[in-house]
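in:
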């Protein structure tokens, strides 16, 4: 694939591929931070990048300039492909980047070629959405797969969503049609603080991933960051009377709805679908 620039061609077998992209499907930077954490933990090394020239409007996703000694360098929007190994030896491929603005089908073909080249057998995409949830509540994580066995094992409900989608939805469809087992997890982030990075939601996604992959958690730095996040958000909310009132209202409503959510796991999926529709308005 001409849009993939390889620096190495490792020979892998039955790799697990994780992908996340900044943008509207990454509320609180939770999805990209979750994949980034696992990339760092397993010391994944870069083996390829996706050429940004074809997929971005640089007037809206601008490159940045930096000084390197006496020289000025331009850093372009980048989607990096990295490779490492999980605790049990399974190859891990991670892709972290920016949701493309252009040529989504070509971008999907590029990632499909990466998955094929690196012999991925399972592809997991991560996302995060803004919802009316309290910041002190446990983070809801929902998932869906094109594999009926995985759905049954994890108790996942296949999505019945119809409407606008993001690059995650397009990629999941492409990987499914390409013969890969594709799986997607989404974390809920409080809408009233969604502009703040949410290590708490990132940690929830990592916890879901390690459960699915059956690997040790080892997320001490994320756990510390999540605890610090709770304290900082508590201080932020307490300093704003209107925000505090709204947060308390959500907490009261959450208490009333807790039983309904336990009895109706499709409620969270419905909320995700409503979120996707709102992005098109």
């Amino acid at each position: 694939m001409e849009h993939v620039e390889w620096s190495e061609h490792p020979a892998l077998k039955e790799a697990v591929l994780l992908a996340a992209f900044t943008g509207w499907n990454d509320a609180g930077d939770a999805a990209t931070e979750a994949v980034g954490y696992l990339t760092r933990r397993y010391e994944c090394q870069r083996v390829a990048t996706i050429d940004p020239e074809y997929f971005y409007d640089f007037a809206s996703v601008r490159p940045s300039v930096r000084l390197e000694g006496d020289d000025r360098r331009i850093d372009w929007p980048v989607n990096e492909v990295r490779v490492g190994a999980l605790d049990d030896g399974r190859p891990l491929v991670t892709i972290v980047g920016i949701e493309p603005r252009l040529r989504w089908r070509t971008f999907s073909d590029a990632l499909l070629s990466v998955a094929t080249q690196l012999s991925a057998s399972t592809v997991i995409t991560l996302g995060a959405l803004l919802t009316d949830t309290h910041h002190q509540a446990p983070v809801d994580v929902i998932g869906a797969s094109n594999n009926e066995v995985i759905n049954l094992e994890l108790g996942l409900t296949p999505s019945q969503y119809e409407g606008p989608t993001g690059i995650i939805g397009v990629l999941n469809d492409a990987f499914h049609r390409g013969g890969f087992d594709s799986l997607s997890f989404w974390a809920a982030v409080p809408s009233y603080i969604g502009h703040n990075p949410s290590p708490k939601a990132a940690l929830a996604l990592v916890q879901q991933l390690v459960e699915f992959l059956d690997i040790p958690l080892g997320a001490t730095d994320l756990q510390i960051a999540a605890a610090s996040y709770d304290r900082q958000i508590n201080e932020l909310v307490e300093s704003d009377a209107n925000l505090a009132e709204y947060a308390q209202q959500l907490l009261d409503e959450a208490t009333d709805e807790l039983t309904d959510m336990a009895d109706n796991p499709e409620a969270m999926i419905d909320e995700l679908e409503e979120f996707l529709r709102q992005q098109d308005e």
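note: Helices lie at 30-41, 104-117, 148-154, 167-177, 199-213, 220-238, 241-263, 266-279.
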